[in-house]
Amino acid sequence: MQELAEYDYELPQNLIAQSPAACRSDARLLVVNRAHNSLEHKHIRDLPEVLRSGDCLVINDTRVVPAGLIGHRTHTGGRWEGLFLEASPDGFWRILCRSRGRLRPGDTITLVNAVGQEDTQLQLGIKQSDGTWVARPLSREDAFGLLDRVGRIPLPPYIRKGRMVPSDRENYQTVYAQVPGAVAAPTAGLHFTPTLLGRLEDKGVSLCRLTLHVGPGTFRPIKTPTLTEHRMHSEWGTIGQAAVEAIHECRRRGGRVVAVGTTSVRVLETAAADGELRPFTGYTNLFIRPPYQFRAVDVLLTNFHLPRTTLLVLVRTFGGDTLMRRAYEEAVRQEYRFFSYGDAMLIV
Q1: CB-based contacts of 37, cutoff 8 Å, min separation 6
Q2: Which domain holds residue 292?
Q3: If you placed Cys at 336, which of 50, 143, 169, 343 could pair as Cys (CB 3.0 to 4.6 Å)?
Q4: Per-residue pLDDT tens over the stretch 265-290
Q5: Which string of b and e fits 323-343 if b means at least 16 CB within 10 Å?
Q6: Are 193 and 25 in contact, with CB atoms under 8 Å apart?
Q7: What CATH number is attached to the domain comprising 129?
Q8: Together in a domain, 34 and 48
Q9: Dihedrals φ, ψ of 31, to 5°?
Q10: CA 221 to CA 100: how far, in whole Å?
């Protein structure tokens, strides 16, 4: 039984990155070699020299939506904050929200858009057992079109206390983002540029896509004393036939499957749950913890994660507990930048 306290570590506040590197690919890269039990300091731009011809880079092409909502209760004027989670085909939203006063079904919220003007209204429905609310926008607009106007990029609270600046709309998005639906970025992918992707292709590294819409639970710390007691959040993901075939071809030619981020790992390992990678679409609540045996991923590119989170547990499970503790200690000692806008490690 794994105790949660084993997944804690000390991190100086000044190492929590508040903005990305000026050039995405200039972020530092700690290469962790499991076979040699070694650590090496490089940069993301060095990936074409570190990866091999024949490897397959698996990226998550989810797109972060401006899901942060600000407004006031229409009848009282009381301040209100919300977070869009998803929209149903019939136009209802699932949201998290809070206000000073007690919210009730039927309450109407006036949303304030990105330039500070009153905009459309949102009517609250029923509060669900998990704390989310069903709500209905009083507008016939497409959900993502409406959010582009009234929403804010939902930064995690350790970046400027969640307050976005205009540059976050581009910075907190991968250059290959396509499918809207995430409320947090797949942060390992933030390091790539079109130039770097081109250099990797020239090296003979193939690229395939999957989608996992990152939810608010991704950064949530584990609250239970042991890992076995933790109830894992679920997120929607998909990997299609073409990507599966590309990965099988990579394996046939002796290449490695390089997952970009823990989100890609979750989809790949969910799709390979029975031992063979197959197409998958649906929700996954896979919690990767010791003594998990990986079936689909050979190499992992990932950022440095918060203590006591499921992401740190996944990374330590993949990289090996002793070696990963050493890697985190080295990253702190060498003043790497941590979390969403920070540096990365490549575990080979």
Answers
A1: 323
A2: 4-64+170-347
A3: 343
A4: 999 999 999 999 999 999 999 999 99
A5: bbebbbeebbeeebbbbbbbb
A6: yes
A7: 2.40.10.240
A8: yes
A9: -90, 120
A10: 25
Q: Is the pTM of this model over 0.90?
A: yes
Pairing of strands 68-73, 118-127: unpaired
pLDDT digits (tens, 9 = 90+) for 41-98: 999 999 999 999 999 999 999 999 999 999 999 999 999 999 999 999 989 999 999 9
Residue 218 has a pLDDT of 75
CATH of the domain at 252: 3.40.1780.10
Number of separate domains in the chain: 2
Same domain membership, residue 341 and residue 245 = yes
- In this structure, the dihedral spanned by the alpha carbons of residues 11, 14, 18 and 24, taken in order and rounded to 10 degrees, is -80
Indicate whether 119 and 268 sit together in one domain: no
In this structure, how many other beta carbons lie within 10 angstroms of the beta carbon of residue 124? 23
Q: Are residues 73 and 109 in the same domain?
A: yes
Angle between helices 321-333 and 310-319 (to 10 degrees): 110
CA angle 95, 99, 103 (to 5 degrees): 75
Domain identity same for 196 and 258: yes
Angle at 340 between CA 336 and CA 345, to 5 degrees: 45
- Which of these three, 93, 125, 152, is where a domain ends? 152
Is 157 within the bounds of a domain?
no
Q: What is the pLDDT of residue 223?
A: 87
Q: The dihedral of CA 255, 243, 341, 99: what is its sign?
A: negative
**Last residue of some domain: 98, 124, 152?**
152
Beta-carbon contacts of residue 193 (< 8 Å; ≥ 6 apart): 23, 24, 25, 175
Residue 228, token pair as written in the block: 């076995």
Of the candidates 69, 67, 65, which has an alpha carbon nearest to the alpha carbon of residue 119?
A: 69
Q: Which residues contact 251 (CB under 8 A, 6 or more apart)?
A: 257
Tens digits of residue pLDDT in 306-321: 999 999 999 999 999 9
Q: Tokens for 344?
A: 């990365």
